[in-house]
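User: I want to check something. If I give you two sequences, will you return the structure for each one separately, not as a complex?

Assistant: Yes, each is folded on its own. Here is the first sequence with its structure:
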Amino acid sequence: MIPARYGPVLFSLILSGVMSLLVSGISTFRALQPQQDFVSLSAGAWLTGWLFAFPAVMLAAPLARKAVALLTARG
């Protein structure tokens, strides 16, 4: 098992992987002709997207948590 102190990093890794997979898959699907090689092009786009998404999530998650705390009622 992974120690709990790595939870935020693991969360960011999983979230960025899933979101970049969805976004790059949809974008690639919309941009391609039906006969083109969707899987290999989508995988390349996903890996590039994940490279940028992971650090973005690491930076954005604490800001999002603070925004949610400010915008929600306590109690």
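And separately, the second sequence with its own structure:
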Amino acid sequence: MSAEEPMFRIVRGVPTAEELAALVGAIVVRTRPVAAAAPAAVSHWSRSARPAGASPIAGPGAWRASGLPR
């Protein structure tokens, strides 16, 4: 495909500028390579509500230990 050839053409109808922009945006998003998903950052606020250390372990007295400071 040369630089003068259009990437796509409208074969029927008369789209508005907004419709063409939406079409081009959808094509660009679909043809973009998928980047590796970075792990989501955990905010300090949500981290402060979690107990420090390992996750609570189920068993006798676990419900009581889950509310106690470590």
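Because they were folded independently, the notes below concern the second chain alone. Residues 17-66 form one domain. The mean pLDDT is 77.
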